[in-house]
Amino acid sequence: MTIPFAQMTQRQQLITLRPQALAACALFGIVPVSLHVVNHGFNTTYAVSSITGERYALRLGTNSLRDAAGLAAELQWIDALSADGQVSVPTPHKTPTGQWSLALPGAALHRAIPATMSHWLPGRIVGGRPSVAQLMALGQTMAQLHLHSAHWSPQGNAAFPPVNTLWMNSTESISTSTHPSMTPRLQQMVAQAIAQITAVFAQLDQQFRVQPIHADLHGYNLMWHAGRVSVFDFDDAGLGWPIQDLAIASYYVRDIPGAEQHIRAGYAQVGSVPAVSDAFFETLLMARGVLLFNDLLVIESAGERAYIPEYCRRMDLRLQHFLTTGTFALLQ
Question: What is residue 1's predicted lDDT score, i.e. its pLDDT?
């Protein structure tokens, strides 16, 4: 009997995906001398060293919610940013026939798996404890992304999805979750928070116009090299508001004193910092937590699924604090 992908161990999942990764290398015209997994979570990323000595990043959309139009828009934007040079991004690598992406057969997942290849970014991942210089650079880079996308749009059949909602690219799954860690108390607090978040998003929709945003700017999607930040993982990019990028970046550093101020200071060196009330900004931070919770409940990657009970415990603390104080805290 074939084990469903979501019930496999991480090792079993990676063994299952390896033939697809090798097939992708061949279709992209690359002969690998090594193929190493560097991340297996929402997506699966491999470091590829080719027979020619070049290095690449192969990305399989293991849990990707992208459709073909959205993936085309993502790759067009990365290519345009690479050509512009103001923001450092991984340059996409095409197949010999000129394709930027592939749809690989994925029998274990019961759907096609999108695959992209890009040239490897030098440096090291910034991670969860960025320095002051890295936070400033993040703010500057975020502002550059917004300045670029304000006057850019995808061409042809490419189109970004709207992400100026609580659920962004996802389908709401919290209310139907049967996970044993989802207690009635937690369900009730999530429902209360969702009502507040939805009201704030409706008001923000009247205040701002949408444009392409990255929508996942945090230290694990940033590379640091020679004093410069590079941005990767545009899988969540879509049509949203710049204030969302600022809130998303702030979510991950809320427990680092002064970090948000450094991001804003860096942003202000390039453009005007998007402004909302403190209450609205705190709600955007809580919205990020609810979205991550929602996506975690349905993710199929084994390592991520094992984290659900702990995340439920933390969400209970964070939601109680938000509903009581109106502020978000990254409580653990």
Answer: 53
Q: Which residues contact 208 (CB under 8 A, 6 or more apart)?
A: 164, 241, 242, 243, 274
Asked whether the beta carbons of 49 and 55 are under 8 A apart, the reply is yes
Q: Which parts of the chain are beta strand (E)?
A: 32-40, 44-50, 55-60, 101-104, 113-119, 124-125, 211-213, 222-225, 228-231, 238-240
pTM comes to 0.94
Q: What is the DSSP letter of 128?
A: S
Pick the closest to residue 238 from 218, 210, 219 (CA basis): 210
- Architecture of domain 132-325 in CATH? Alpha-Beta Complex (3.90)
Q: At residue 233, what is the residue type?
A: D
What would the pLDDT profile of 249-269 be if each residue is shown by its tens digit? 999 999 999 999 999 999 999
* DSSP 8-state assignment for residue 88: B
* Cross-strand bridge partners of residue 56: 48, 119
> Residue ranges of the domains in the chain?
5-120, 132-325
What angle do helix axes 308-325 and 278-296 make, rounded to 10 degrees? 160
Q: Count of residues for the chain? A: 332
Q: β-pairing, 228-231 with 124-125?
A: unpaired
Indicate the DSSP class of residue 277: -
Give the C-alpha separation, 266 to 50, whole Å. Answer: 37
Q: What class has domain 5-120?
A: alpha beta
